[in-house]
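Render Putative membrane protein YkvI in 3D.
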Amino acid sequence: MNKHSWQIALAYMSVVIGGGFASGNEVLQFFTGYGLAGIAGSVVSALLFAFLGMHIARISSIMQADSHKQVLYSLFGRQAGLIVDVVLSFFLYGVGVAMLAGAGSTLAQQFGLAPLAGSVLMTLLVIGTLCLNVRGIINLISAVMPFLLVMILAITIYSIYTSTGSQGELNQAAEQVQVITFLGADVPNWALSGLLYASFNIAVGFPMLAVIGGLTKSHKSAALGGTVGGLGLGLLIIILNVGLFANMDKLLNIEIPTLVLAQAIHPWLAIMMSLALICMIYSTAVGMFFAFSARFAAPETRNFKLLSAVFAVVGLGLSQVGFTKLVGTVYPMLGVVGLVLIVAIGVSWMRTRKQNSTSE
């Protein structure tokens, strides 16, 4: 793999992982609540992440796209693509708001600060970052990924090794977890939950992945970066899911489960983990507000910076609803948009394969 492939892989992982994943909150609701069967659901998501990342990055590289709108128009046509773009932008803004709430919850749980203080801090960081150029934004969100990767792997693997709960106790605790809801009802099984997790996350990662792929001239390097990033995401999901299940008896009604696991190892590790969480919340928040603001103004322009600041401040007010509530409501609805994207990407992939076989 070359430099461009690694950059795509790391940025893809950074934007998708964000606060909900790294906190353990998403994984708890989408997978761990189904007990051991949730591991199979995480494998479903892993395979989808790799396939979707490969194809999105490849299409964007071929088009040399500088916006996710170009890729959407390629997948859906101009009129339908515009509709999908508007709906997607609306829900991406909701994810950005959830990240501001996540920053508040993380600092409140670890340091006892008022949730509003953490949300204000994150809002200021987002506004400052969006005043940079596109390449600078991508470099920043890619740089924080290795730190979180090491932290998540170390904490979850140690937590699995030191788990003291019996399988019966863990299953009983997992049954008390409020699994994710979709269209007003609990998702009934792990397979559908795995599909929905991939669908809403690919909707989250799609705009930034499309921009990064467009900066890469080599189609193969772009596709490889998307594939490796997707597989990396899948591996993290599986490990974190097992780690949460192994300690389920200690994690009920906890908003930031990974902080509890870190605290059980050493207080200083919990502080490092909280900083890592803030970094990942930051990377996703930047990606979401970037994509939303780019819907109304060209990046790096004065209007873009002004709108970014306005949207972030409004999002700060909306974020006071609460992190867990936002994850449980905004994310599943974004999953509907993601399902539409998955179908369109699958059709595009089959069409490309058919064209290649015909030309041979």
